[in-house]
Amino acid sequence: xxxxxxxxxxxxxxxxxxxxxxxxxxxxxxxxxxxxxxxxxxxxxxxxxxxxxxxxxxxxxxxxxxxxxxxxxxxxxxxxxxxxxxxxxxxxxxxxxxxxxxxxxxxxxxxxxxxxxxxxxxxxxxxxxxxxxxxxxxxxxxxxxxxxxxxxxxxxxxxxxxxxxxxxxxxxxxxxxxxxxxxxxxxxxxxxxxxxxxxxxxxxxxxxxxxxxxxxxxxxxx
Length: 222
Description:
Elements: H1 2-22, H2 26-35, H3 41-82, H4 89-93, H5 97-110, E1 114-116, E2 128-131, E3 137-143, E4 157-158, H6 160-173, E5 176-181, E6 184-185, H7 187-196, E7 199-201, H8 203-211
Parallel strand pairs: 3-5, 4-6, 5-7
Antiparallel strand pairs: 1-2, 2-3
């Protein structure tokens, strides 16, 4: 934003100095000459730079407003969570894998989805099959690691192999892939997820979802 603001200020200042030097409005003169088939090249370049600077500034301001709105929503959810009993990430770490999957099922239902459990629980490629209110299918893979400590996060991380299995299961189920974990996610796995359009809910988002109550899987949620 600082760069865009500075560029806009410099363009406006230089345009004003040139107008003062020549004693007339360069913008009006440029429009007149453009109508006659000739444009002052210098002014055209300056005007283009000014327009680009204004466009960048508008984009940055819009992005900041969106971020501030997101922060306000997060704070609202945090205050709401403080009034209700929600599992913390420490408590989630100490759950069993079965309890973790049950928690994710509860959160999905809270987000307004219908949840089905796999018919073949022996090492499925997805843990839960979900249908949204609009009838869209999502195959949710839960990856939980037990952490007996009350600090830090599990040492294990989700890698590309985990995501590949999740995607394969989602394709077979005819839905989108979502992977939820209380651990970390490797950078190659994040790149793979972006390329294959796999929705990742990592430890930070899991806290927003489970502890603070944000409906992360609803349409339009961040």
